[in-house]
Amino acid sequence: MNGRRISYFEASARMRLSGLVDADSFSEFCPPELRQTSPHLAQLGAPQAFDDGVVVGRAKLAGHAVLVAAQEGRFIGGSVGEVHGAKIRGLLDKALVKRPAAVLLLADSGGVRLHEANAGLIAISEIMRAVLRVQAAGIPVFALVGGSCGAFGGMGIVTRLCAEVVMSEQGRLGLSGPEVIETVRGVEEFDSRDRALVWRVTGGKLRRTLGEATRLVDDLIPAFRAAAADLIARYQAHPLAPASLVALLDEQARLAARSERFAGARDGREIWQAAGFADASRVPELSVAEFNLHLGETS
Amino acid sequence: MEQFTLTLPSSPLPQDIVRAAICGVVSSGNLEVLVEPGATRDACEIVVNTSAHGFRDIWEAVLKDFAARHDVGGLRLSINDAGATPAVVSLRLDQAFETCAA
What we know:
heterodimer, A: 2-enoyl-CoA Hydratase, Chain A, domain 1, 12 helices, B: alpha+beta, five-stranded mixed sheet, 5 strands
């Protein structure tokens, strides 16, 4: 499959992977025939998946060695259970030994698998720590977000720990999902059924405007591949520098200022207006190329 | 979950399968099929794990039809099902067969 016109959003985790990396270069760790399934789901009498909803392995991307994990959003919302989490954490641990050009996390997840409660929470915290450890060793981790579940809850945090976040407009990134916010704070706070609002607030275009996503790409598997390949080339030329206290304090100050500046904002439109878009209400209609051009990017 | 295994007579697959293959996703109304080499050349072993209770008769009809339509002797299929309709199961099985026959 060449993946030329295949929607990243619509594709399964395995389709995304096969279109993302170099042809026939993918080799899976813990493949489905090993049946490393969730013991918790079995106890609850819930359907299991042979890969527990995540595909991990090694591959080449534009000739560079990479380690990859792809979450399957259609299996229990891409949720992170004990086995699912251990596979991602194990992949990140392997990166310390194998030193690939990058680790790619194809996030498509609502966060912790509630069926697995504490085991899922521990798994997420292990992944968070492992991402930081891998990046401290100079290996960048890239999050790719363009699936139907986006990256929420713990996987939203993991995504923001990554050196780069590539998103499509369809991709969403956040901590609490829209339905959680509506349940807890009421429909006046956030109407989760207003799909356009949900995407204006959590979608790739707003996340890119705010700088939480570092690339916005079209909803096509080759577009994600091209962005990942370009990022790998950049990090080969300019290796990831360890985080410094000064840089972290600067970032903290920047985020505090941003939080204050947009404290009253109710919609992505207000932020696009502040970002200098001539007609903020039309931003969702802009093509990715037009949008990136406005942000001063040519790619 | 309801679990059962069927061993259905079927002509041997034209060629041996080289590696396991997986098709489909365990999501509502869908299923995954894992294809592996089986123990006997002239029968297809199918392990079904389904979230829908009480439909074994329909499963047997769909699976027997599959084993009759294709030469699938020597295969072992493992199914994780989340309430797929018989038509979806049939299509997914055909897809699994095509994957391993390719």
